[in-house]
């Protein structure tokens, strides 16, 4: 019943966006950040991935935060990412707002992706701002054992292009906020909706679908709530959308 209701909302929407969190990527082998089996069980992500630790305690950053970032590399998109890409191809989804830094929406082929917490494709020099591939950065740390890794051009400190605790939000967040001003349906997939300021975005949508294994603070106001695996749920909804569009 909930799947058909979700498909009907998608078929009727004019400006639908998706908001994704760590839950969509667990099926790609990436542990989430907040469950008992997530990264926060091993590290305190609020400090391990903070600007203060990156700059003030690089040894800790490269033994904790860096490990979390490096583990995202070489993962593959799953059925959830592919279903959202297909919804975009069909013209129903205008874009994906993601809290994830794992690049999986881009790898799946989604064209309009707002990476509101950054990504792990590149790093940049904090002095000269030159950009390098993330793999070059990994090699400096793991092969050259350079902590902190330095810019080959000017010897400034390199840092990942991810939004850390203590950083300003990037332009992608402002762009996502502006997109939400015209959003008539937001499909939330795999987000706990507790991390600000992204957690404010669902309140801007006229209608709301939430797919998440655990309850969220927005369940009470959502039009449809599905507590199930993201890949399975999105695949079912996509099938019903395609069936409805063919009638």
Automatic annotation (TrEMBL):
Domain Deacetylase sirtuin-type: 1-244
NCBIfam families assigned: PRK00481.1-3
This protein's name: protein acetyllysine N-acetyltransferase
Active site: 117 (proton acceptor)
EC number: 2.3.1.286
One example GO MF annotation: metal ion binding
Residues bound to Zn(2+): 125, 128, 151, 154
Key words, A-Z: Hydrolase, Metal-binding, NAD, Transferase, Zinc
SUPFAM superfamilies: DHS-like NAD/FAD-binding domain
Main EC class the enzyme belongs to: transferase
